[in-house]
Amino acid sequence: MSFTAVPVRLSTLDPNFESQFAARLHWAADTDAAIEHRVADILADVQKRGDAAVLAYTERFDGLAAGQVSELELTQSDFKTAFDALPVAQKAALEAAARRVRSYHEAQKKAGGESWSYRDEDGTLLGQKVTPLDRVGIYVPGGKAAYPSSLIMNAVPAHVAGVQEIIMVVPTPVRGSVATGGSGATTATRGERNELVLAAAYVAGVTRAFTIGGAQAVAALAYGTETVPKVDKITGPGNAYVASAKKRVFGTVGIDMIAGPSEILVLADGSTPAEWVAMDLFSQAEHDELAQSILLCPDAAYIEEVQRAIDRLLPTMPRAAIIAKSLNDRGALIHTRSMEEACAISNRIAPEHLEISSDDPHRWEPLLKHAGAIFLGAYTSESLGDYCAGPNHVLPTSGTARFSSPLGVYDFQKRSSLIEVSQAGAQSLGVIAAEMAYGEGLQAHARAAELRLDTVPPMRGGA
Amino acid sequence: MSFTAVPVRLSTLDPNFESQFAARLHWAADTDAAIEHRVADILADVQKRGDAAVLAYTERFDGLAAGQVSELELTQSDFKTAFDALPVAQKAALEAAARRVRSYHEAQKKAGGESWSYRDEDGTLLGQKVTPLDRVGIYVPGGKAAYPSSLIMNAVPAHVAGVQEIIMVVPTPVRGSVATGGSGATTATRGERNELVLAAAYVAGVTRAFTIGGAQAVAALAYGTETVPKVDKITGPGNAYVASAKKRVFGTVGIDMIAGPSEILVLADGSTPAEWVAMDLFSQAEHDELAQSILLCPDAAYIEEVQRAIDRLLPTMPRAAIIAKSLNDRGALIHTRSMEEACAISNRIAPEHLEISSDDPHRWEPLLKHAGAIFLGAYTSESLGDYCAGPNHVLPTSGTARFSSPLGVYDFQKRSSLIEVSQAGAQSLGVIAAEMAYGEGLQAHARAAELRLDTVPPMRGGA
Question: At which positions is substrate bound (chains A, B) (predicted)?
């Protein structure tokens, strides 16, 4: 079967550009009331019945029966066995990737993840103490989206932050089991596990792991059960049930962003071999039919060249069907007036992945305000960043780069303000605080400040 | 009318301590399905009808009728008029507080809010670019919880981060209007505004402001309307409708944590005047009947002294009724075996405010893992931190200090990874990335890496 991929061709010169552009960009997460309802029930049930509920849902949704949750626990020796069984090249790649990711995140911690303090002129100490979370949960999807690289990207920053316990949940549904409401994966067979994920758990240093998934796994991590320990934060991607469950337990535990479909935006000035750019567009499109690949370029001839490269390379790709559907439905090749205009459009999109495919990338980088990750220059293919350059591949999607950041060490740390007011400081601060507190009608606040004054004034408006 | 406040007396020596302690700590946010439902409807309606819906809900819930949303906009001159009308001492206090809060947050930005990068041995550049959000919304409640200090604590860090537009929403409901589903405040009269909040908007540098509230205000900020600009993040406290709306728009925009009732935990070694500690407990209790004030102390005689100070001081307090109810229902004076044990219990609570009321606070501080803010030494009353010491008073409540942090400059910034792989780097990274990508069945990823190799190998498993 042969496929063709012809991303829509837009031009900023076209008077209808704005509406065409808006239509192509549009994507909205389904908020499915039926899913929300079912998830609320599952959460409440796991909170109430603990292990018994987890076992029931795992049997019902994943077709996996067990007498006790402890039977669903993987061991460190499962991880090691999986790692030892890998071909040498794969072992080396996993270890090299983990090493580079660790080293980048160590630099990140040093750049902003350390405690700090100073004393002001009154001798008052002010600062922040930065400490790791105690225990985190990482959700790893079963089935087609089970990526060992994802596990590394979630677990390594937690490790670098100093998290002591990393609990992984990964469903292993039975082939053909009823997946609705479960982990959404139907391709694994009973007992068959994703060995690369287990090997990655070994390399990344996962503490404990359970073969459970779906909303029931999120609930077990958020509330704790007799067997599954309660965590402080849950990260990692999942299907609509997992996303809904995470959103619902937010507040009881921390969560990472809810991810939408993956996106790449390539800003090209025409200096990169067209095949490289075409393959970068493919590498996003092959994830998912909803993934979005966009090229912005001021050079019309180069856009033609990229389309020809697409035509030439597509038939060689094993995932040609997914790539073609993604590019045809959601892709776009956009001709712009200039690179400056291309940068401005990129800022409106706030893409997850942003390649500056230019021989002068540092000229354009300062113009780019919103993006999950910025890849500079022709050699920086997104796939290098996805696996092993070092920065995290868990990035804000669907325009959320306007207000959120790559997963990082900071997601596994929290801060406590430190304040030590000197006796001298209490004199000047006490007067200010009391004035404001009386203004807000909070007399005990005012009085707590005034009692620390060397000369305590009479209380205003006392009872 | 006279009140007595007798917080429950617990001891870690008591064999029933654990269950008594758990019972006293227990607090759970109501998840009211009726509120969730109504909020979902309001959000959908504002998203669809924009200004018209905002006007309709503002009239229905706040009793405030207007022909256009622009009539509900406050101006910079409203802010300045309010500020100019304040007594000199209040002006000075507001300005001093804002100045100190600004200076602390500038130090915070320097300590971790700046871009960074490095080059590895292959010449590959790795780092993060830190940039401000473009536009944020700050929710300011109407009625009894309308605190100018809150506005300063929300707006100043946004300013320091470099946010260009700060949009405030603050309901001004008409006295006696139907508050259900609205802003939850029924004490303001039509046209009457909280002048201190407006003055704080002047000092804190709010860009635009609208007198709207409730879920409709959250919706207007999250989706934008013809008049209210769409923001990137919404922060600030609100009632159950506001909290539910914020939770629901999370993902479309960023939000801060949903706050529960306020809490203070005092670790005392008996060296602080008992009246100071009693007043600090009051200053939390006076916020709200659900607020929680806890004292942990290894000295039984000192606990008696604090109770006597409570008895003596309570009758002088204008908010004695609220203080008494809060202390009686949710307060606790806990006798511990030692300061070490007191620290361990504090870590289980993960309090919002934690005072180390000791003459040797730096001995205990390292033992404390989880807290929103730590106040060291007898002179550091929480109220100094609430208003003017400098650190933020928006802190994680209800144990969420286990995984979250004070509001800070970082909440108004986001990060973009920076990656520039050199030609040399592309050779070593390309081999690793390709190996992992083939392992995950993502051949376009593998191929995008391999095309950058000086010698491009044949594709594995090509179609």
Answer: 262, 284, 287, 353, 386, 440, 445
In DSSP notation, B160-199 reads: HHT-SEEEEE---PPTT---TTTTS---PPTT---HHHHH
Dihedral sign, CA of A443, A445, A448, A453?
A: negative
Residue A48, domain extent: 33-117+131-255
Tell me, yes or no, whether B107 lies in a domain.
yes
Among B198, B230, B255, give the residue marking a domain's end.
B255
Those of residues 35-94 in A touching chain B at CB distance below 8 A are 89-90, 92-94
- Number of domains, chain A: 2
Contacts of residue B339, defined as CB under 8 A and 6 or more positions apart, other chains included, come to B267, B269, B298, B358, B363, B364
Dihedral angle at the C-alpha atoms of B47, B52, B55, B58, nearest 10 degrees? -40
DSSP secondary structure of B214-248: HHHHHHHHHH--SSSPP-SEEES---HHHHHHHHH
Residue B307 maps to a domain: yes
B356: left (phi over 0), alpha (psi -120 to 50) or beta: beta
* Chosen domain end from A201, A235, A255: A255
Tens-digit pLDDT profile for residues A135-165: 999 999 886 557 899 999 999 999 999 999 9
Residue A408 falls inside a structural domain: no
Contacts of B90 in chain A (CB under 8 A): 435-436, 439
Query: Using one digit for the tens of pLDDT, what is the confidence trace for B272-307?
Result: 999 999 999 999 999 989 999 999 999 999 999 999
Chain A: give the shortest CA distance to residue B298, in Å: 22
Q: What is the pLDDT of residues A361-406, one digit of tens each?
A: 999 999 999 999 999 999 999 999 999 999 999 999 999 999 999 9
**pLDDT computed for residue A231 by the predictor:** 98
A448–chain B Cβ distance below 8 A for any pair: yes
A382 CB burial (10 A radius; 0-12, 13-18, 19+): buried
Interchain CB distance below 8 Å, A276 and B94: no
Rounded to an integer, what distance in angstroms lies between the CA atom of residue B327 and that of residue B331? 4
Establish if A226 belongs to a structural domain: yes
B148 and B284 together in one domain = no
| CATH code: domain of residue B292 | 3.40.50.1980
* Number of neighbours of residue A231 by Cβ within 10 angstroms: 27
Q: Please tell me whether residues B251 and B164 are part of one structural domain.
A: yes
Query: Is the confidence at residue B178, as pLDDT, over 50?
Result: no
Q: What's the start-to-end Cα distance of chain A, in Å?
A: 86
CA atoms lying within 13 Å on the CB side of residue A59: 12
Closest chain B residue by Cα to residue A118? B107
ipTM value of the model? 0.93
Q: What is the mean pLDDT of residues B215-223?
A: 98
- B175 and B40 co-located in one domain: yes
